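Worked Example 4.2. Consider the chain below.
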Amino acid sequence: MKKMFSVLVPVTLQQLVISMNFIIDNLMVSYLGEEFIAALGSSNKFMVIVRMSIIAICSASGSLISQYRGSRHKEGVSRTFAINSIITFSTAMIFCIIFFTNKDFILSSFSDSKEIVLISWSYLSIIIFTSFSFSLIMPMMTVVRSTGNVVSALLVSVISLFTNFIFNFILIYGKFGIPALGIRGAAISTVISEVLSIIILLAIVNYKITPISKIKDIDFSFKDIDKFLRVSLPLLSAGLLTSLSLMFSHNIFGRLGEEELAAYGIISPMENILSDLFAGVGLASIVIIGAELGRNKFESAYSHAKSIIWSGLASSLIIGSCFIFFSSKVTWFLDIDEETVGYVVTMLTLLGISMPVRTFNSTMSNGMLSSGGDNVFLMFVTMTADWIFALPSIYIGKYLFNWNIPKIYSVLILSEILTATIFIFRFRSKRWMTNLVGG
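Applying the procedure from the previous section yields the following structure tokens:
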């Protein structure tokens, strides 16, 4: 149990620190006006697609690396890291091409407001280039974390957070003789903090994992690539389907009105924080359970999995209760009008109530099932919950019954309940426990 928490706590804290970047951006941009909050939330929905795709690829990589580590196969770790880095960088390049060749369509899907679209462009035209920095950070972060160096990964994220905060303060508001750049300053700050993270991670990988100078000499065969793609492509498909469903959902929110879009812009970073926090539980489970599966210790893996799930659920009950209690105090932190406050309070309460279900789903999808390569099943669940149930329901609700944002948000929570029900049966079947590396 002590060994489990020595991985679980740093990885979960790291995800929380990473998510704090979104909250810092949102709070500091909020003082520019509601249209800037809405634009930031809209822009981040596209970036979520990019980042979730890269994270999905790296999650598959983490499963393989953890199992290779469990079976003490160092060459397998190095080969997987090299393949992962190539594929994530290529993915980032594809998304950048898609954005710049379809920017008018993408931006117009955010909102009917021309002002919000223009502000979104000023932010996205810079932040899109973090696709490349993120595609370098995540493979390195994955190999550092999956080989047990979880504290090092946490420290990198803490340094990045403080760097982003300091440069946000300077560039958004114009301090120390630098002109105020507004929302563009938030984008530039993110670029600076991620470049710093790359430099630090290169040093860690070079010192603790494999010399950077030798990466070009790593030899991998078609069989290695095929193994990686068999694990990663279903997970990438699931990630794309999830992020696209979020974008279509946001398209609905953008048609509801500026106050409702602003409310969702406020809620969205909080959702991201909670999602990343409990995704951290899932990512920790890849490190812990993946190593056990790589050693063919299936009963031990199942026992650890149950402990991780119960720990996550206990934490979610506490956090969810805090969200419900403090939902009415949102005006302490944000300068928004009364109508927007009403929407935010209702949605925060719903978010708090649904916290245990969301936590369980995040733990299962971000680590538990993928630790054994059960990624085709994850893709099936995403198709069922998001594309067969949630999206059709909210489109019908909006365009036939003129639902407001709390009702639409409630349907998304019902989708989470459906997903959790499917996951429970799959977990108890133990069919997700597979040795992927043949150790």
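Residues 2-429 form one domain. The mean pLDDT is 81. Compare this with Example 4.1 before moving on.
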